[in-house]
Amino acid sequence: MKNRLKLLIFLLLPLFYACETEIDVTLPENKEGVVVEGFIELGEYAEVSLYKTLPYLSEIQLNNLLEQVVIQDALVIIKKGGWQTDTLQLVQSPQAPLHWFYQGSVLKGEPNTEYELQIEWKGKKFVATTSILEPRQLDTVRIDPLEGIEMDSIGRVYVAWKDDPAVRNYSFFRLKFANELYRDRTWLTCFPVAIDDITFPTADMNLNLYRFGATRWFMPTHIQEQDYLQYFRPYCQYGDTIYVKASAIDAASFQFLNSMMVPLYFGDNPLGNPPLIHSNIRSLTGDPCFGSWIGTASTEYMIIFDQLLR
Cα–Cα distance between 247 and 170 in angstroms, integer? Predict the structure, then answer.
């Protein structure tokens, strides 16, 4: 018995030693790239946010986002029809996701028109194209009870519209909430972000929307920790004013939004195989780039949650 015990200890010793051995992990060198978040809305000037890529384990501080993340010295140009141009300028705006974006002043979005985005930064060149279609019109916008929850003071946004099954259409949705505690300063993506009429081929389209796009970057500074649940909640509640933006988008824009929906809302393992995301930004110089340039034709709606649900 003693011999067996000695043998067991002898066999386990390497395991204990291995547990105490320090492992030196060398992270791959980060190659600086560009992240693009650009929109041109029907009747509005283009807005393009540009960010630097950072190593995954970088510490980002809210008080120095401009210096650490936002690209401030790029040349950003919008082209229409190959000859009309608009050189965008860096401006500070509450509508910008991180408070700064490049904004146009010459070309406003027109229906059934293609727009080219050109970006130059530190010798890197990036391009993308998008189209603005006809506006998306909704037939119904209302608040429905949350399924399976018997509470008359909380609900979800329900939208419905008519669709032509013979034509491929793509829709993109965003929300804003306003109440006594806060008012969203920028449009937030919702869940689902976008939908096509190929997956659900029917003339009567409908959808429930949830406000899943709230983050610490968008949260007003006066909100205290005890109110986080109120800010980050995906559902609407009594006292809210809800703004809905429904947009028609082209196929490339839908592919990007649809492919980024799962990692955006549910996360993924950064050290594993990342999901395939269909960015429509292309590098002319072989540099890393990611993001989207999206043309939107939108209609906006407002609902006031001032009556309890029956």
Answer: 8
Burial state string for 235-265 with b = 16 or more CB within 10 A and e = fewer than 16: bbebebebbbbbbbbbebbbbbbbbbbeebb
DSSP letter assigned to residue 15: H
Nearest to 36 by CA among 235, 280, 229, 303: 280
Bridge-based pairing of strands 236-237 and 154-162 is antiparallel
Question: What region does 262 belong to: left with phi over 0, alpha with psi -120 to 50, or beta?
Answer: alpha
- Nearest Cα neighbor of 52 from 124, 127, 129 is 124
Count the neighbouring beta carbons within 10 Å of the beta carbon of residue 144.
Answer: 12
Of 227 and 26, the one with more pLDDT: 227
Contact, 187 vs 178, CB < 8 A? no
> In this predicted model, what pLDDT tens digit does every residue of 133-152 receive, in sequence order?
999 899 999 999 988 777 88
Which residues lie below 8 Å from residue 297, measured CB to CB, with a gap of 6+? 41, 42, 109, 111, 132, 133, 134, 135, 136, 247, 248, 249
pTM to 2 decimal places: 0.83
Angle of CA points 39, 40, 45, to nearest 5°: 120
The string of DSSP letters for 97-114 reads TTSEEEEEEEEEB-TTEE
Per-residue pLDDT, 38: 96
Report pLDDT digits (tens) over 267-284: 555 545 556 778 899 999
Q: Which tokens is 123 given?
A: 């010798």
Q: What DSSP state is assigned to residue 306?
A: -
